[in-house]
Amino acid sequence: MTALKQIYSSAFPLVTLSILLMGCVPKSQLEKAQTDLADAQAKIKSLEHDVATTHEALGRAEAELSQFRPPAANAGALPITTRLRRHGTEFQLAITNQSKAPLRLNITVSAVGRWITAAPIIDGEGEWHLPQLQTGDVVEIASDGYASQKITVQ
Q1: Which CATH number fits the domain that encloses residue 94?
Q2: Residue predicted with more confidence, 75 or 136
Q3: Is the dihedral of CA 104, 105, 106, 112 positive or negative?
């Protein structure tokens, strides 16, 4: 019977399963396998429930967060002008506040191998400079209530 089982198992996995179920495996092992399968199915159901609960909580959190942050599509343009000047192999970005009120900016420079952040407050109609930029750097300028602006140094 063992040789026959090996032949069937190499070509027909379902036949092997039916041979096992027909008495080649002790009943206690089959019952344990059925119990293990039922436990695994229960665990899968529990994990599916956990995932659904997590997705619901994430949706609620995103909805709450959106109340504090205006959608970028409805946000106005930043009241700034920018000028990029070359100084040798480096660049300097000048940011001018066009409004009469002070403006707090959140600036992020991302580049290969480095990451720079700054949070200057530019006085009304004032100017702020970001030196030592390299070709390829991406500067993102943001401020609460305004759509962000990206500049790639070229």
Answers
A1: 2.60.40.10
A2: 136
A3: negative
In a domain, 74, yes or no: no
Instruction: Give residue 116's identity as a one-letter amino acid code.
Output: I
Q: pTM of the predicted model, to two decimals?
A: 0.53
Amino acid at residue number 99? S
Range of the domain at 121: 80-152
Residue pair 97/123 in contact by the 8 Å Cβ criterion: yes
What span, in angstroms and rounded, lies between the C-alpha atoms of 98 and 124?
Answer: 7
pLDDT in tens, 124-153: 999 999 999 999 999 999 999 899 999 999
Q: Which of 2, 148, 9, 6 is nearest to 82 (CA)?
A: 148
Where does a domain end: 18, 43, 68? 68
